Hints:
alpha/beta; 434 Repressor (Amino-terminal Domain); Endonuclease, Chain A; elongated
Amino acid sequence: MRAFRAAGDLEDEHILDHRQAGPTVLRMLVGAQLRRLREAGEITRAAAGYAIRASDTKISRLELGRTGFKPRDVADLLTLYGVTDEDERQAVLSLAEHANNPGWWHVYTDVVPSWFEAYIGLEQAAGVIRSWEVQFVPGLLQTEDYARTVIRLDRSATEAEVERRVALRMRRQRILTSPGAVKLWAVVDEGALRRLVGGAATMRAQIEHLIRMSALPNVTLQVMPFSSGGHAAGGGPVTILRLAAHELPDVVYLEQLASALYPDKPAEIMHYWDVMNSLSVQAEPPARTVATLRRMLEEL
């Protein structure tokens, strides 16, 4: 399902490349293809599970891209689904093989929880990212000093771990300036910009950075002013990712204190799109963002 997009300028030309996408999205792609083939053959998950000596639960996890693939299992499923063309079989098997290869961020698994590692894979393969932030500047727009201060709020992290996490956050930001850059549309609550994270000097540098980033053609930044009163997103931060692989559904990511939720029912995804679109209408228009940020600089 493709959810409603608020503006025509969100059309995406980002091309998915398995060398950059990472295992998360590739598993989703392979899983979606296997699901289509199974459903086209009117084969139940139970029957598919039996064919690979597994349960219907495992088939469900494979089709959702939540587990790795064994080449033999994929080959047996393709046979069961009647895929005999060698080129078609090799295309799926090759994608499944790449899906088992770790992404570049795998070297940071010592400081990244598994629930967030999955998000990084999605983020790095996205064509469009829409986000709503309440407490902090979005991670993709943070300066190094600001990010370091935020990460240090985790009192359990050693200084070495803090620096590793800062390095990862800076590396993630390359998707904003690399060829085929992601389109980021972020709405940030005024409170996140007024809060002195790291002190006045750190916030001044951070706001100046936001002004520079707002000038990028692929970055849209809006501020939700205190004067707007209540709004549709009364809870925490929300991120919606539109993947460059157009056959995959949009992904909603809700980060918690020590975990994350991924609402995946079509109605849920549509609800969060409605919320995000409402926030974009209620916030100050993008044309006023730089003036608002400059006013905040003067008040620091």
